[in-house]
Amino acid sequence: MPQQAARGLPRPPSPSFDLAGWVAEPRPEADPGVYRYGHRPIDPGRAEQAKVPAGPLLLRAGLNAVVGWFAYVYGVQLLVYLLVRIGIETGIGPLAKPSPSQAVLVLLLANAAVLAAAIKLFGRMGRWPEVWRRYAAPLLSRTVTQEEPAAAKGGAEPTGPVDPWAELRHAGAEAAAQRLDREAVGDVDYVRIRRAWEVVLRDPEILPAFGEQVAARGGAACAHPSELRDLPGRSGRHDLLTRQVRLGAAQDVPKNPPAHRGSGFALDPAVLGTSLLAVGPAGTGKTSGLARPVAEALCLQALAGTACAVVIGAADADLGPDAWYDVVIAPGDPGSVYGLDLYGAGQDPDEAAARLADALLPDELVLRAESARTALQQVVGPFQAAFRRYPGVRELRELLAGEPAAVEALTAELRAGGLLERYERELQHRDRQRGRADDPGMLLADRLGLLDRPAFEGCFATDGGGRPPFAMRVLDHPLRVRVKLPELSHPEAARMLYRLVVGQFVQAAVAREDRSLFAGLVVDDASAALDAHVVRGLQRMRGTNAGAVLLLRTLVDLPEALRAPLFGAVGCRMAFPGIAPWDGRLFSEAWGTHLVRETAITHAPDTSGGMLRRAGRLGRKALSGTTAQTESVTTREVERQRWSPSDLAHALPAGHAVISLTSVNGAQVPPLLIDLRA
Q1: What is the reported pTM?
Q2: Can you give the C-alpha Rg of the chain in angstroms?
Q3: N or C: the chain end with fewer CB closer than 10 Å?
Q4: Which pLDDT value is given to residue 2?
């Protein structure tokens, strides 16, 4: 049973939450990474014009207005004079001797023609449309907005917010809609009930049951198994309708695409589904600015019934309080309620044993992975067949080490069940390997000794005698799981558990049959969790509605053969300030180059002109000591790196990051400079 189920009654949302206004807020379609809640798209052409500073823009507009006024006044007089002269010379009566009405008409036409020409000419040079958009239009808009309440008091009917439960009313669930109108309903409740309503639309037979539950429980209907309706201590900016979490704002700099400049930056499952790799030293904000907000977003989406979350990190990592999670696994902590199933992701014994072997091997012995998998499979498969369960840590360690009592007990159980003939060859091959210098069984037994410690008593039990084990195969339920690993007290054991849990998640996410929930993984320090199997699994997860957020202090913590494949496996890459130049080189190569307009100015001695000009230049040189030069300007398009390793290592300001995005449908966003504090 989830831990939260016994923590009291569900906490209702804040009564001050304006549900109707939140639902009615515009969410226009935008590029990946743009926070759509309340977003106002920017015209790229206007954004380019807005680069002109306010001072020069207003000065130029004023000068053109003054010159335009004089041009208009004298232009009208000149035009009228020319028309009269033409009338006298040609004998046209209305122009030579016009009547009073004809004179007024000619004067109006002359004024209109000169005024239109002056506005077109001097307005373009003075950028009057830009001044209007930047200053006059907002001022006018504020004035109109202030006058609207007064107009409403005079009898005009203001437009109200949308009805959030209109679909329920139109479909015959009027009682349910009225109950929801009478109480405070939060964004989590709204999305959760809307998700249940979508199920009702696919199966109309359950409409009466849905209506009865909503009418009885209101906003708490169709609740998460924990009965929570919000997260305690919620701090991030989330939009659960678009499933986005806002992390900051894209900066208004030339390196950023125009459509992103100044807009909010956010992540959602469509982007996280391609997985995200973030690299940066400690203290640069990876955990507080990325891991914690994403973990909070996944937990909120789990309460709304749209995601499941697995968050892994050290016991002291700031990844949210335990109250955010249904299951908290803390190996080495006597107060931990749940244990961990070492075989939790594999339905097949051979597959489960292979993943456990990958987790047990240290990085320097990865070349012996295949023989280690085989050795573990030779004891796990027969044990599972004989005892109908997987071996515990101590049992597995004794079998790998060849303890006579353990081997005899396994053989006797297989013989009693009539399975000895089937597994006899496996056991004989394992027996022949014992005692050899290259026997992987002894190596695995020594590694298992790191988990067979008093501090981990009951954490990995398989016989039902320890803590309830959590198995990763439950990713088709909206669970929130926090794994706290003892990095300080048992660092090598923590490294093995990192590899094990992450490998199990990748394995379980790909093997899910029901993929309606987004399966999100957040790893606060992935340096110990990544191997070739996990990297291959990241690529397969793109089509399974699952993704991972992997944080690294430096790429040097990974084997060199794994760095390039990892960059190719993830769709989103994020660099924090202070990364090493050799880390920045991989980011720079992954982000590639683009065309930029480059201006080159060349100075050369002036040799033009005749004797007089040459004599003047000689005199100038004698008096001032400088040589007269000519200046030539060349503009061309050249390829340049979007972000160079030096820029990433030394030019990123504190609190910022550079991130590139790829969504699951293939849409890409080039590297963005974002301010995580905005």
Answers
A1: 0.81
A2: 36
A3: N
A4: 44
